[in-house]
Structure prediction request, 156 residues.
Amino acid sequence: MALAVGTKAPVFKLFNTERKEISLSDYTGKAVVVHFFPAAFTSVCTAQMCSNRDELVYYNDLGVTIFGVSVDMPFSLRVFKEQNKINFDLLSDANKKMIHDYEMYHCNFSCGIKGVAKRGVVVIDKNGNIVYSEETANPGVQVNFEALKRALEELK
Prediction:
């Protein structure tokens, strides 16, 4: 189960597709949305990241920083990002620390694959607290973008 609303967001340090280390502490005083996804290049994950790409102006207008997080290597995420024209940072949690810390660890994904990110989304407010948290019961089901937007509207 994803971390509960009201919980302090665990600090993370991950590498983006340019191999630059990104830390939650770099965004102190800003709201952050973290989209967890199981695997680059899969249909539902691609749709999730492309939905965020297409809505980036909305996030920017709210002053919210958005990240996508999976256990894929930064090199794979870079190709995925380029092919899909993703316009925000994708972060590699190849060591699976963040997905454990945020309780977004999927034990049995598919085809016997273990240890990928669950599909979910977490909103962290400017004080570092989780104000919205969702995980899908089925990784083939998309996150609830409307509920996410309602949560973001409450940050104003």
Q: What stands out?
A: The chain is about 25% helix and 25% strand. The mean pLDDT is 93.
